[in-house]
């Protein structure tokens, strides 16, 4: 008699499996979020450097993540997901130590800045390792048919952590000083290392190993669309504090929280939209909502409307990454999933690395409001590209 097929895992079971893995993403982005609203003002006001240098300080982390993606993908595919996450958490611990040391050297502004930049580099590498590691681990754990859910929950963990971390960092730095942020990063990294210690990793998948640049070429069409949409996120997180200061407003950290809360709400409400409607269609609608939010930030006459613009930006951007990601990962074999995820993530990192210096230069000449106008136009360009990809996929 034939044995009955094992029952498919329930949605609740799959979600719990995913959450147990994206916990490490939450820790990583909590550590990214803690200094994000404090850092531009610290570099600009406390250390005395320009807005462009403040933007470069934020952007260097994203550039480091970008450059580390090939290494992260290769490490995940060859050594396993758990090791990638452990190495990433060690990087966060190192970033925390350097941030603390930088705060002790504030009487030497240039030295303090250089040490701080070293910490930003380590934090960027850690983000790359943990980002690729958790996504590959999650997809391997629950199956490729749940790719959109893994990416969605990973994003919820990411932006939820930033929504919590940004105001928490402002409060922590205000009460205990900038040095406390470095110690907080160290403490969270050590906590996560204790949690991951006894968690079993997945076996390394055997099969074809695509070189990173071969995987990059396969996912590039979707990746360029992701870059065009994600510059709006990089612009908001890097410059919203200085935008508020220019307008004479307070509460910039809550603008980041509005973005994060609406981002999470969109993913919770529309988690199955990608499987229902297809990645390209969902991406087009989401980029349109994002462009509307960025335009509202550009024209906002008050903090209330700026919060609404930030919320719409988060609500729209929310599903762009998983929507285009599902289409991108279809282009690579499962044995090279780490390389494919790393290559796709490069385009997100590229957006954040570009946003700092590019928008800093625009702000220096036109004012901070205009950076949101430029970001909205780039999102509209992403819509045009995605419509071309949709038409091409329909032809096949």
UniProtKB/TrEMBL annotation:
Residue ranges crossing the lipid bilayer per the database entry: 21-40, 46-63, 84-108, 114-139, 151-172, 178-196, 216-245, 251-270, 282-300, 306-329, 341-362, 368-390
Keywords in alphabetical order: Cell inner membrane, Cell membrane, Membrane, Transmembrane, Transmembrane helix, Transport
Protein location: Cell inner membrane; Cell membrane
Residue ranges annotated for the Major facilitator superfamily (MFS) profile domain, each copy included: 175-396
InterPro entries: MFS, MFS_dom, MFS_trans_sf, MFS_Transporters, MFS_YhhS-like
Bilayer disposition of the protein: Multi-pass membrane protein
Cross-referenced Pfam families: MFS_1
Family indicated by similarity: Belongs to the major facilitator superfamily. YhhS family.
HAMAP family: MFS_YhhS
Name of protein: Uncharacterized MFS-type transporter M5G11_20930
Organism from which the protein derives: Pseudomonas fontis
Lineage, broadest ranks: Bacteria, Pseudomonadati, Pseudomonadota, Gammaproteobacteria, Pseudomonadales
């Amino acid at each position: 008699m034939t044995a009955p097929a094992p029952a498919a895992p329930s949605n609740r079971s799959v979600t719990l499996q995913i959450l147990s893995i994206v916990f490490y993403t939450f820790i990583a982005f909590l550590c990214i979020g803690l200094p994000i609203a404090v850092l531009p003002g610290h570099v600009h006001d406390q250390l005395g450097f320009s807005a462009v240098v403040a933007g470069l300080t934020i952007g260097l982390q994203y550039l480091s993540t970008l450059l580390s993606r090939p290494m992260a993908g290769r490490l995940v595919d060859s050594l396993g997901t758990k090791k990638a996450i452990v190495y990433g958490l060690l990087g966060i611990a190192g970033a925390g130590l350097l941030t603390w040391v930088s705060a002790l050297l504030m009487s030497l502004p240039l030295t303090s800045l250089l040490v701080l930049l070293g910490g930003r580099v380590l934090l960027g590498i850690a983000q790359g390792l943990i980002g690729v590691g958790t996504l590959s681990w999650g997809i391997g754990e629950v199956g490729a048919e749940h790719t959109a859910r893994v990416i969605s929950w990973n994003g919820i963990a990411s932006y939820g952590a930033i929504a919590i971390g940004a105001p928490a960092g402002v409060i922590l730095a205000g009460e205990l000083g900038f040095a406390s942020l470095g110690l907080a990063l160290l403490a969270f990294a050590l906590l996560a290392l204790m949690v991951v210690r006894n968690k079993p990793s997945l076996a390394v998948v055997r099969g074809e190993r695509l070189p990173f640049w071969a995987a990059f070429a396969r996912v590039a069409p979707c990746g360029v669309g992701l870059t065009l949409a994600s510059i709006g996120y990089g612009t908001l997180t890097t410059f919203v504090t200085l935008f508020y200061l220019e307008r004479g407003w307070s509460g910039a950290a809550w603008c980041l929280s509005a973005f994060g809360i609406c981002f999470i709400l969109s993913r919770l409400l529309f988690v199955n939209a990608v499987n229902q409607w297809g990645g390209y269609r969902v991406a087009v609608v989401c980029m349109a909502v994002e462009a509307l939010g960025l335009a509202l930030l550009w024209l906002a006459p008050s903090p209330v409307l700026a919060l609404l613009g930030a919320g719409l930006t988060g609500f729209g951007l929310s599903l762009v990454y998983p929507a285009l990601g599902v289409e991108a990962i279809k282009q690579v074999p499962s044995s090279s999933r780490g390389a494919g995820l790393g290559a796709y993530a490069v385009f997100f990192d590229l957006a954040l690395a570009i946003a700092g210096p590019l928008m800093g230069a625009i702000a220096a000449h036109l004012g901070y409001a205009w950076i949101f106008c430029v970001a909205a136009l780039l999102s509209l360009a992403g819509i045009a590209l995605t419509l071309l990809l949709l038409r091409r996929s329909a032809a096949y």
